[in-house]
Amino acid sequence: MGHHFAPVTSLIALVSTVLLLSASVHGSQGDKEPVYRDCVKQCVRTNCTGDRLRGFQSTQPPYMALTGWTCRDDCRYQCMWTTVGLYQAEGYRVPQFHGKWPFTRFLCFEEPASALASLLNGLACLLMLLRYRSTVPRQSPMYHTINAFSLVSLNAWFWSTVFHTRDTYLTEKMDYFCASAVILYSIYMCCVRTLGLRRPGVSSMVGALLILVFTSHVSYLTFISFDYGYNMAANTTIGMVNLLWWLCWCWQNRRTLPYWWKCGVVVMLLHGLALLELLDFPPLYWVLDAHAAWHLSTVPVHFLFYSFLIDDSLHLLNTEKTGVKLE
Ligand SMILES: [Zn+2]
């Protein structure tokens, strides 16, 4: 089947290269700008000390204090818009600040569109998990694996919502690590479905291997260096293993399982939509950027994915039943 996937493989190579080159660097043009730096310095000096700081703290709404917005953060936010104004007045392209486009803050939400989209993804997963649990009997062979997968996904969408609400050292790591965990768990789920139901030993071995991969990945990023390029390359690689394994399975079962296309469409969509990330444009209305568009675009995919999981779980349950009868 190798040649079927040749175009996919070259696409992968292209995408990984582009992703590596466009990997976000945390210093950006905007925050290197002397106007911006002086503005922040001046603002912090006048507003974030003594009586002014106490005034800031007493007037700051509780939800802002609770989500960790500091006086310095407010200075950075104000100065970012001052700098953007100057750039636009001079007819220059909008710059990024600290690795990000300028976004209009909504209450305590730093990137409101991405935060909302993450929340919607989480809700879609939760809704479909509940439907799965009410439709599929617990005896179905994949029942527990799929429940666990849903919890791993819900956890990832929770951290994604948190990260897009407030970008800090910790929330960023949690968003990245939990997202990688979902892809690895999806590979595990594919392994259980394709090999493990007949040979449980294989899934245990693959499971152990994936835990090892995850631990090394997290340790490297935490203790050695938080390298955006490496993180992107690692995610792209495990994403491709996931994509190819599921696609092979779909292809092999296309004649026996009438719902095989749902799985194929879902994995193609999820990986195709990730390409939206490559379109790096300044946010429309200072709200909607490519990342938010990508998060929004995946919301409907969960419905089709769970529809596939339900069909497949019921199918497995039926074949198991008839298998028992035949013996
Ligand atoms: Zn995100």
UniProtKB/TrEMBL annotation:
GO terms for cellular component: endoplasmic reticulum membrane; Golgi membrane. One of its GO terms (molecular function) is hydrolase activity, acting on ester bonds. The keyword Translocase does not apply. Its main location: membrane. It holds the Pfam family Per1. It is found in: Endomembrane system; Golgi apparatus membrane. Residues 1-27 form the signal peptide. It is a multi-pass membrane protein. InterPro entries: Per1-like (IPR007217). Keywords: Golgi apparatus, GPI-anchor biosynthesis, Membrane, Signal, Transmembrane, Transmembrane helix. Involved in the lipid remodeling steps of GPI-anchor maturation. Belongs to the PGAP3 family. This is Post-GPI attachment to proteins factor 3. It comes from Clupea harengus (Atlantic herring).
